[in-house]
Amino acid sequence: MFEAMLDPTGGPSATATGPRLAARPARLDGLVVGLVANPKKNAEPFLDAVGELLAAEHGTADVVRTRKTSITDPIPPATLDELAQRCDVVLIGVGDCGSCSAAAVADGIAFEAAGVPAAVICTVAFRVSADAMARLQGSPGYTYVTTAHPVAPLDEAGVRERARRALPELVGLLTEAPVPVVAR
């Protein structure tokens, strides 16, 4: 009979004090936006739609796209370093399953640690996975944007509509602007 419950995840960092975020710009105009898509269906179209909306409505200067080859692995260090050098802010997503939601949050926290403001997008169904990863990374309470589940089966119009709905919260997370509460 055992007398103690072991946490196979290793538990949260003993030094976890909450999310440490990179300094936010006041506005997005003129900035370069990194788009970090996972290989899930519609992740790239969702981020591309957000990138187009940011350019049209907030005057961003350019986007730099990258696509991860795995939904579970963290962003490769060389890719993170390159994007941190080239981009002012980064969007990561779309967490549309448990593994990819957790990986997206881990990537967002890694960009924040590298000094780049990041906004992660996950579907509401996988908040538990996303929140667990934030705790494991020593950033309990890390804030990300949720969208309705699922994203993968949406058509082009559906993806664009979800991107449009998420935009105000994404802008709020990437800047010093207050994050609006959006009904879904």
From TrEMBL:
**Positions of the UGSC-like domain:** 5-175
> Which Pfam family would be a valid example here?
UGSC
Annotated spans, Disordered: 1-20
Taxonomic lineage:
Bacteria, Bacillati, Actinomycetota, Actinomycetes, Pseudonocardiales
NCBIfam families, sorted:
UGSC_fam (NF041046)
Q: What is this protein called?
A: UGSC-like domain-containing protein
